[in-house]
Design a protein that fits this description.
The chain has seven helices and no strands. Helix content is 62%, strand content 0%. The chain is elongated, with a radius of gyration of 16 Å.
């Protein structure tokens, strides 16, 4: 179900908001980048706050590729900072 974002933004209808949120994972751009989307959905902000400079840069590589290029990162190595608790 596609939602008109302008109408939804102004809406106070909780059901419309729940429906829109529930349909997020069915969005084609989300489906195309599912690995990164799931990664970002489960991201622990505390790991980012505690990360060293390499970890911070690893996060930025993942984030900027996901957010601004609209595609998954080049390699799984970019997720290392998260697996290693922000240290790599």
């Amino acid at each position: 179900m596609r939602h008109d974002i302008s109408a939804l933004w102004e809406s106070r209808d909780a059901k419309k908001w729940r429906d829109a949120l529930a349909s997020y994972w069915e969005n084609p751009s989300v489906r195309n980048n599912l690995e990164v989307e799931k990664f970002m959905d489960k991201l622990d902000p505390e790991i980012i706050r505690k990360s060293n400079s390499e970890g911070w840069h690893g996060f930025l590589r993942v984030y900027f590729n996901w957010k601004f290029k609209g595609r998954a990162v080049a390699g799984r190595g970019d997720f290392a900072f998260y697996r290693e608790g922000g240290k790599g």
